[in-house]
Write the structure tokens for this entry.
Amino acid sequence: MSDSISTDSTTESFVPSITPNVASVTTEHTSRNAENLEVNGTTTGLEARGVHAWFDKHHALEDVSIHFPQNTVTGLIGPSGCGKSTFLRLLNRMHEFIPKSAMAGEVLFNGEDMYASHVNATDIRTRIGMVFQKPNPFPAMTIGENVLAGPKLAKKKVENPDDLLEECLTRAGLWKEVKDRLKAQGSSLSGGQQQRLCIARALALKPEVLLLDEPCSALDPGSTLRVEETIVQLSQSMTIVIVTHNMQQASRVSDYCAFFLSDGGPGRLIEADLTTNMFSNPKDERTANYVQGRFG
């Protein structure tokens, strides 16, 4: 992983008001309601059914069921240690990379259990991309090489690399800032630019779902704004699930929120609803206490 170095322009040198900018690119969807999160046996999209997770003998996550509506952003919120990131890794089989990890339950993707023995895990990770907490561009690669690394490693033929490069960087909100220095090292970018570069790299595989694990936790407010704008714009054409500890961020970018909590035992899904309902009228008192800052 490479640390943030510096930016060579003024694009990330100020601290703007975030809320109006992000709101300006959202689209109203009158059909959205809490029922969309219920497990419904659909043959499309992403859905978890009765999911448990363990690390050796430690039971980390218990009986989580939720459906992720297509072309929406769902925020996973809750205090540290409640299983949010563990659950996120279960959604594209990254969990199984951890030694002595195990899971139970089903994670359905387009109606098929991704943990079934015949399912190719690499194919799942191609179709369900992931961006991690700390920006991690490949340090020995240029900006352009970083974006195209995914298809190359997956041995997928790209008909027109230049077009794919511009498309992914544009969708990640980075093209205008780097189009004249695509041969510069990816590590030469600022922290916020590096994170958007990692998003562009994930997009090069044309995923149907994008998982984001606290993507803005190490970024300044200006960089956070740009990543949030990218998330909202991408959600118009793909499903996004984001882990965040920032309640303001959850309220800005997510259509739905799912609140996780541990009482000392395994993490559980306490409540999931429209984000507006979660912040204005949650059903569970523990949710209200958390989103209002009384703990966590």
User: Anything to note?
Assistant: The two ends are 29 Å apart (CA to CA).
